Amino acid sequence: MNQETELKRASDTRWNSHYQSIVNLILLCSSVIVALDSIEDISSAERREVVLILEKMRTFEFAFSIHLMRNILGITSELSLTLQRKNQNIVNVMDFLKMSKQRFQEMRCDGWESFLTEISSFSAQHNIEVPKMDDIFILTGRSRRNTQSFSNLHHYRYDLFNIVINLQVQ
Question: For 29, 48, 50, 149, which has the most beta carbons within 10 A of its beta carbon?
C-alpha cells in the first residue's frame, strides 16, 4: 500500500503531482506524524524544526488548508490534464473551463457545510481540536490590541474558503 500511496518529491512539478501529494498527505497524515515524532539522532535545531512542523500539522488551520487545497487542486488538475492533451480543440477547452468555473461556484455556494463536516471528521480522527465557529477568531502571533473581532466562521468561510475559490474563478 505504501508503494501506491507515497508523498511525491518536490521536483515533480506537474499540477497533478501536487494534487496527488496533497491526497496522499491526507491519507498518510497519522503515519507522517508518527514518523516525525520518532525521529532521533538529529541536531537540536533540526529537532526544533520537527517539533514546529508537528505543532502545525496538529492544528485545525492545517486540516482546513490541506482539504481546501485538495478540493481546489482536484478541479484545477482535471483542467490542467485536459489542456495538456494534444488533440483538444478550443471549443472543448472552453467548455471544460466553463464546467470548472461552475464547479467552483457550486463549491462556494453549496459546499461549505459538507466541507466543514469533512474537516471535522478528519480532525476527530487525528485528535485535532475543532474551533467553535461562533467563537471569536483569535489571530495567533499578533497583538490583539486594535484588531477587529470576528467569528471563526467569518475567518474560515469568508476570509479563506470563499477568497481562495474566488481567486480560482478569476
Answer: 29
